[in-house]
Amino acid sequence: MSVVRTIGVMAIACAMGTAGACGGSRPLPPPPAPAVDDTSLGAGDVFDVRVHGEQDLSGTFRVANDGTIDFPFVGRLAVAGLEPPAVADLIAGRLREAQYLVSPQVSVFVREYNSKRVSVVGAVDRPGTFPLTPGLTLVQLISQAGGFTPLAARSQVVLTRRNGMRTVRFRVDADRVTEGRAQDVPLQAGDLVFVPERVF
């Protein structure tokens, strides 16, 4: 690794607050459990609708940019900002109003939260931004990004998270997680994972 690249990595690590990356930096605390997840739907999200006993009404839908979906027999529905159970209630109500079903039983299951995203940068094969799928964890996100590069400082991963009006950074030892000696970290919308390179 060139001197310029080494200095650049150290500068980023110091800015991110990586423990041990620069002299005098204080170790970052371990990550807390995530806040209650925001599971409301937004543009680009994909979800399955199951209407009991009605195969023709069951299917997969993607929320349009205007926050709506087109549902069979009832037309356009505004679903952005609604939780999945509320979407199920909305569909059931419209099916009753249309007199298509007397007592519809509707379930909604989210496949992809494309409106809610998380990012990973640094020493991974494919850094970038990814959809926040239900249950996604820090190590799973790194795996989606192609895994660690050979120079990754696996024990010094930094998670940056918005906590109300504050931005908080935490250190995650990914080696301990993959070895089963520590819990993986569930991610929430807006999280940024930074994997620094080892400094020789």
Describe this structure in words.
- By secondary structure, the protein is of the alpha+beta class.
- The chain folds into 2 domains: 3-35 and 116-195, Outer membrane lipoprotein wza fold like, CATH 3.10.560; 46-112, wza like domain (wza like fold, 2-Layer Sandwich), CATH 3.30.1950.
- 20% of the residues lie in helices and 26% in strands.
- The chain has 4 helices and 10 strands, in the order αββββαβββαββαβ.
- The strands form 3 sheets. A 5-stranded mixed beta sheet has the order 7-6-10-8-9, covered by helices on one side. Strands 2-1-5 form a 3-stranded antiparallel beta sheet, with helices on one face. Strands 3-4 form a two-stranded antiparallel ribbon.
- A hairpin with a 2-residue loop joins strand 8 (157-163) and strand 9 (166-172).
- The model is unreliable at 1-25 (pLDDT under 50).
